[in-house]
Write a structure and sequence with these properties.
Arc Repressor Mutant, subunit A
Length: about 375
């Protein structure tokens, strides 16, 4: 799966851009809600809701007709839509503003299914699953690390030059959701971004009522681990199940039908004990020969997908303050630390030691390899 693979439901992407569904048509409300500071907010509002829909999609290479949401578009086309919006509004930080405008209702049935889960952990797991299906260019992973509960986001398909837009939009949107689901007395969050602070970095502080850090090992929302099992105020299992059923009945999904992505997701579950190609194929309902052939048809291989997963897991290990290269090597299935260090340099251009020096975490002790 690459930037040109049609795998993203158009109906889902319209929740990003059809702000008419959630915007109140008052400039003062827009100014307060989005934190925009402009001379004529009416003009900004007119641009947002007045853009010619046909031209908007046509310029991105999408032959769109009204009521034709049940089709798929590529990551490249989504990026082209973002490019038009950012340039039309002259707002490089548009992701922050749009994310802040998106309410639970704006996420539709996906939002309802998420917030009606019993606990915050279940809510974030549902969001992660929806992201896999509805926007596979990003992955979202909830996890517990010691006293920290972490909701991390990573780029699976290149979103350049607008990677920051998608991280800004989703980080603000899900930060706001968590903020409203959790009692105010437990609002002890911070947000990290893996990229350097952009020229509009000061604007980030308007949208996050918590510490904001850049140049971090990964993009994530961090809060107390104890919140994972906090019962949500809107918990309703029947409603959650109904919302999820309605969502997938009305929005087609295709992402998990792509074999490399299915394999990658499966391998991520086997951190520390990766299956052989034959065993992986068996779990996916095919022979090893068939899996090898189908992956080759997609321009990849079992080893390439395994290395991609290993690279991601090694970055996450260091981001969490991993203690030992030897330990990580064994967990990733390498025969020794030297083999891991050689592979890591091939993936990143850096040795594990160099990588950790550039991405320091506190209280880390390691047996370093050059």
């Amino acid at each position: 799966m690459d930037r040109d693979t049609p795998c993203i439901p158009l109906g889902h992407i319209q929740t990003y851009f059809d702000l008419r569904k959630s915007l109140k048509l008052e400039a003062d409300w827009l100014r307060r809600k989005s934190n925009l500071s402009v001379d004529d907010p009416h003009e900004i509002l007119e641009v947002i809701i007045g853009i010619d829909q046909q031209a908007f999609y046509r310029n991105a290479g999408i032959d769109y007709q009204p009521n034709e949401e049940n089709r798929f578009i590529s990551t490249q086309q989504v990026v082209a839509l973002v490019d038009q919006a950012v340039k039309a509004l002259k707002m490089p930080y548009l992701g922050l503003a749009m994310g802040n405008l998106m309410t639970i209702s704006h996420h539709g049935m996906a939002g309802v299914a998420a917030v009606t889960q019993t606990t915050l952990r279940e809510c974030l797991e549902v969001i992660s699953r929806f992201c896999d299906e509805l926007f596979p260019a990003l992955s979202m992973t909830p996890r517990i690390e010691g006293n920290d509960g972490i909701f991390a986001m990573a780029e699976e398909i290149c979103l350049a030059p607008y990677s920051h837009f998608f991280f800004e939009l989703n980080m603000v949107s899900f930060y706001n959701i968590m903020w409203h689901l959790i009692d105010e007395e437990h609002h002890d969050f911070r947000v990290d971004f893996h990229y350097p602070e952009p020229a509009w970095g000061n604007i980030y502080r308007r949208y996050f009522d918590c510490p904001v850090h850049f140049n971090q090992p990964e993009t994530r929302i961090v809060g107390p681990a104890s919140l994972a099992e906090a019962e949500l105020p809107l918990a309703n299992r029947l409603m959650a199940m109904s919302a999820e059923k309605t969502l997938f009945e009305n929005i087609p999904t295709r992402a998990m039908r792509f074999l490399p992505l299915r394999l990658r997701r499966m391998l991520l579950r086997y951190y520390g004990a990766f299956p052989s190609l034959e065993n992986a194929a068996s779990q996916m309902g095919m022979s090893g020969r068939t899996l090898r052939r189908k992956l080759a048809e997609e321009g990849t291989s079992y080893q390439k997908e395994l290395d991609r997963v290993r690279q991601r897991l090694s970055r996450e290990y260091f981001a969490r303050g991993g203690q030992s290269i030897t330990e990580l090597s064994l967990m990733l299935g390498f025969t020794d630390s030297s083999a891991f260090a050689k592979a890591f340099r091939r993936w990143t251009g850096l040795s594990p030691s160099e990588f950790m020096e550039r991405n320091p975490t506190t209280d880390r002790t390691t047996d370093r390899l050059a």
